[in-house]
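Next comes this protein:
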Amino acid sequence: MPTATNTDDQPAPGFFFRFFVLAWIAYFRTLFDADFAAGVARLREGRPALPPPPEPEKKVEPEKKKPEPEKPVLREATPDAALQLLALLQREGRFVDFLEEDVASFSDAQVGAAARVVHEGCRKALREHVPLEPVRSEDEGAKLTLDKGFDAKAIRLTGNVVGEPPFKGTLAHRGWRAKDVKLPKMAEGHDARVIAPAEVEL
């Protein structure tokens, strides 16, 4: 009788070897070896006795931290220039007097007359010492498009700001930019905090 062979061209074990050796070994090992029993179960289902080798773990590269934006360097402004400008507005247009006055008891005509004087004097002071020009030359209400790279320091977006430039919108205010600053020089020892000296009539 020819000897049976397995799929690897090796002689298959005979009946008595299978019954008296392999069967009993397999029986007891199946009882006490869970991994071996799992292999037998896989063979019965027609799958390989050994589980597939585990897939190599994929190396997870740590996320690169985005560089933090540089914090703007804050410069401390000296108050002298602001106080000096306020003094000029007071001298030319009685600006501080107008703001500190309780106008609730005045009539609209009285407030309007006072505002006209303040407006004329303050406008004169600004045009002489801090001449201004509009940031945008278009008329207010005009439609315009802001391309990528527009000057965000000179243009403020309002409303529903979504996405990236170009932005299309309506010019609500032209803005103002100082063309020059021509404040008078202060004498040594001058106290800029005195916006307007008290007046004493003799």
Strands lie at 132-134, 143-146, 167-170, 176-178. The first helix runs from residue 15 to 32. The chain has five helices and four strands.
